[in-house]
Amino acid sequence: WGYDPGAMPFTAVLALTGWAFLTRLNPTWATAQFWGVLAGSAAYLVGIWVGSRKLSYPLLWASAALGLVFVTALVGESAGGARAWLRVGGLRFQPVELARIALVIYLAQALSQGRSKYELYAILTVFFSVLAWQRDLGPALLVFFVFAWMSLAWKFTWPKFLLYLAATAGGFAAAFYFFPHLRTRAIAWLRPWDYLDSKGYQILQGLFALRSGGLVGQGLGEGMDYVIPQVHTDYLFAVIGEEFGLLGTLALLVAYLSLAFWAMQLLQDVPDQTLRLTGLGLSLLLHIQVFMVVGGILRIVPFSGMTLPLVSYGSTSLVAQLALLGLVTGLGQKRSVE
């Protein structure tokens, strides 16, 4: 059909790795993840169809993003300290996973088409405020980093760069002051050894797991996953490191880097600047999350509580990430059309 299939091998490696470890941890999780892969495959095809169309009506995309997070804030369910879940009938999902894709599509059009800065900053402010209301700050931080990168990629200036640095510092300071659970997480990140039996426990167990894996790992099923809280979502990367070792985790990261390289190669020949910026934002949405999760486990950055894309347990995130890759694939099809 003229669509580039280059994302499929790397996506399959990542999804299969996640499914294998979830099978080893709990077959019930693996079964749910399998159905997530099937639903995600359909979302991938929908993403291709949407991406191959003209992505117009920026305010419609912004309204979709804001509507999803507003509804969640009003009638959503809480889990892990954040009101981030919505239940529709028997289906329970995280709307922010889809909302941030819609917002990135809006941001690309707003930046490249010269829309009002007041409109742009107002929409971002409302989006971040609603997520703060939900106490779901990991996605807010992710979207801010993606926006800053997209904005600087579109037009780099030093004052803008310094402004974003100041906004990042100010955001961290405000979150530290207003959200006790983030303050606890920051303290645990800075001084985990002082809180071995409490707030630093998960961080240290993850580091112990990675260290015990060595170069080639303990072998599948030989790790001590039961000592790590939320191992199937937040900390699956640590279990992979313990059982597959440094080589296994490096192979996983190479798969992510290969996806990034594929996306950039695919999009560089798309003549439309808005579409290229959209593809960049979508790719950043996936790969900055990888950095935030892996960096959090390694104590490079504070842990955000998000899942490892395409690998960790979570059907909503899996469906959204496959839809995202479908969108990038659809955008790449326009290399000779636009």
Give a nutshell description of this structure.
The protein is mainly α and 338 residues long.
Structure notes:
- With 338 residues, the protein is mostly helical.
- It contains 12 helices and 3 strands; from the N terminus they run αααβββααααααααα.
- The protein has helices at 7-25, 27-51, 58-75, 96-112, 117-134, 137-154, 158-178, 180-190, 201-213, 236-267, 273-297, 315-332; strands spanning 77-79, 82-88, 91-93.
- The chain has a 3-stranded antiparallel sheet, with helices on one face.
- Strand 1 (77-79) and strand 2 form a beta hairpin.
- Helix 4 runs parallel beside helix 6.
- The protein is globular and about 55 Å long.
Measured by DSSP, the beta-strand proportion falls in: under 5%
Low-confidence stretches: none
Q: What share of the residues lie within helices?
A: 55-70%
Determine the structural class based on helices, strands and strand pairing. mainly alpha
Shape: globular
Strand order of the largest sheet: 1-2-3
Query: Rg to the nearest angstrom?
Result: 20 Å
Main beta sheet: 3 strands, antiparallel
What separation lies between the terminal Cα atoms?
17 Å
Number of helices: 12
SSE pattern: HHHEEEHHHHHHHHH
